[in-house]
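> agent: user asked for a holo structure of the chain below bound to nicotinamide-adenine-dinucleotide. Plan: (1) validate sequence alphabet, (2) canonicalize SMILES, (3) run complex prediction with ligand conditioning, (4) return tokens. Step 1... ok. Step 2... ok. Step 3 dispatched.
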Amino acid sequence: MGTGIAAVFAAAKMKVTLIDTDQRRLDESKSRIQGIAAELLAAELIDETPETVAARVVCATGLETCKGSELILEAIFENLEAKHALYTQLEQVVSPSTIIGSNTSGLLPSELCRLFRHPERFLVVHFWNPPHAISLVEVVPNPATKPEITDLVLKFLRSINTDPVLVAKEIPGFIGNRLQYAVLREALAIVRSGAATPEAVDTAMKASLGPRYSVVGPIETADLGGLDTFFTIASYLMPLLAKDEDVLQLMKEKVAAGKTGPRSGEGFYPWPEERATSVIAHRNRALLQHRKAVRSK
Ligand SMILES: NC(=O)c1ccc[n+]([C@@H]2O[C@H](COP(=O)([O-])OP(=O)(O)OC[C@H]3O[C@@H](n4cnc5c(N)ncnc54)[C@H](O)[C@@H]3O)[C@@H](O)[C@H]2O)c1
């Protein structure tokens, strides 16, 4: 995620320092940034060469290199203790006015900021994967974050062509993952009931709600469909939808059998390497075309 986010900033003409304790990761990151910039160029979302974009990123292993930075985005392992340890080190290096954001997928900002001497400059800035193709960034202040800092971060994110949303009160999973896992729960419940195959569920989503939601969201859709109609359907359907974690059994069985997805070669679907590569490339191309179409509008 760190490399992807650095590429997004560099593509928006920002100077970036990418810090990682793992030199091997850093060695790979320049070519990965060039690859991301090449995808953005092919989609006509930038007009610079991948080399020009990558040249804005300086790689380093030591924290002192971020001393003069205005914004620091932490994207290390999803581990609370590791993040706390890093923030403690960071606060010894940077000034109290430096803004620090975390790309955590779900740790709450009030927990993350516990050891900060200056929690007022800290907030969650959650990019989605892959950050150059999905424009959403969820911004979640902790209770002590200065409102001016939240506003500044939102303004900055808009200026680099992302679509930030403010989660004004922290909730586990923020917005995007709550929606994603609510859908996944129902998708697995349908499969588990025997009513439809994973292929049928995925096709139903890709041919209907997926494209529609990229234009009008679920609440706009309810308005457009007529709230009276949606209320009637919701009244008999919602009580019947999956509500508990029973469906996790289906995933648990796959994980126990070592079927975790492309990395093991199989999940719910078989994932030979060439298929995984082609699906990911197709997904990125389609997402970038969509971004280009939205931006042109
Ligand atoms: N992978 C995703 O799809 C995704 C999506 C959104 C958010 N996130 C969040 O982003 C963060 C990073 O996830 P990832 O998937 O990129 O993880 P990752 O394991 O691929 O990368 C983490 C990197 O942090 C480096 N690192 C660890 N400790 C460090 C330290 N103290 N100083 C400097 N570098 C250090 C590691 O060497 C590694 O290269 C996590 O908080 C994760 O929850 C991940």
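> agent: step 4 complete. Summary for user: Residues 1-2, 19-22, 25, 75-78, 82, 86, 103-105, 128-129 surround nicotinamide-adenine-dinucleotide (CB under 6 Å). The chain has two domains: 2-166, 176-296.
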